[in-house]
Structure formats: C-alpha cells, structure tokens
Specification:
The chain is α/β, with parallel strands linked by helices. It has one domain (about 5-95, about 115-145): Alpha/beta knot, CATH 3.40.1280.10. About 35% of the residues lie in helices and about 20% in strands. It is built from five helices and seven strands; from the N terminus they run βαβαβαβββαβα. It has helices at about 15-25, 45-50, 65-70, 110-115, 135-150; strands at about 5-10, 30-35, 60, 75-80, 85, 100, 120. It has a seven-stranded parallel sheet, sandwiched between helices. Helix 1 (about 15-25) links the parallel strand 1 and strand 2. It is globular.
C-alpha cells in the first residue's frame, strides 16, 4: 500500500483519534496530530479505540498545520471539508499525499480552506446531515486514496 499521511487539525475526541490511528495502521499511513488536542494521548479512550494497533502507529505531533505541510509538501495535501466543491473521488491521490481533516466540532478553519485552492474536497452526504463522524470520514478518504494508489501500481 502507498504511504499516506493523515493529518488531524486540532482533534477534540479521544476515541475518534484512537479509531483513526487504527485505520492508519491498517492502511500503512502516518498519523499527524496538530495541537492543541482536546485530550491527552495517554487517555484510556484513545487506547481502547486503538486497541493493540496503537503501539504500531506511526505518529507525529506538531504545533501547526504548516509544520506538517512543510515536510509533506503543501501541493501534496488534500483538505476534506463539507465546504468542498468537488467530490473526494475526483482527486488524483498519489503515494505520499496528506489527507487533512478538521476537528470534530469545527472542521477546518476558513483560514486554512482559503489557502487550499482546488485541493478542498468533500464526501457527498445528504444535505439533512451536517457531517459524518470524523473517524468514518477519515476511513472513507484513506481507503479511496489507497484504492487509487494501488490501481496505478
């Protein structure tokens, strides 16, 4: 599987991050957490949701989204938002790309989205629903990227 980066911008809920960590291990992705976090990494909910996968997780902690962008490459980032104009399936993911998700309560800030250009994508959902659970959205995005990367291999 191609190497991916999952970047959570200021995640708030421990068990979502634990489940996302488990997804990252399954996909061979690195998980980046952009502080501040709404929990402590030793939180029992993180450990419970991550199960025995958590020790195998490639984890990076950074203070700013720009820290991750400078290592991965800003042109390699895809920003997931309900405000995106195009479907996440329209993006052409490559090995080494980063998938950026906002925290559970606020999503990605407008200041981030304003600088993302045509790299803001959305997961189509019924308009009556505000959003998906963060861990579900990450899994959907990650495995679409994995699918595309494997098709090109």
């Amino acid at each position: 599987m191609g190497l991916l980066h999952v970047i959570l911008h200021e995640p708030r809920i421990a068990h979502n991050t634990g489940a996302i960590g488990r997804t990252c291990v399954a996909a061979g992705a690195t998980l980046w957490l952009v502080r501040p976090l709404g929990f402590h990494l030793d939180d029992r909910h993180v450990r419970r949701a991550g199960l025995d996968y958590w020790p195998r997780l490639k984890l990076r902690l950074v203070d700013r989204l720009d820290d991750a962008a400078s290592e991965i490459g800003r042109d390699r980032l895809w920003f997931f938002s309900t405000k995106g104009a195009v479907s996440y399936t329209s993006a052409a993911y490559r090995s080494g790309d980063g998938l950026v998700f906002g925290g559970e309560t606020q999503g990605l800030p407008r200041s981030v989205l304003d600088h993302a250009g045509d790299r803001v994508v959305r997961i189509p959902i019924d308009p009556a629903a505000r959003s998906l659970n963060l861990s579900n959205a990450v899994a959907i995005g990650v495995f679409e990227a994995v699918r595309q990367i494997e098709l090109r291999a």
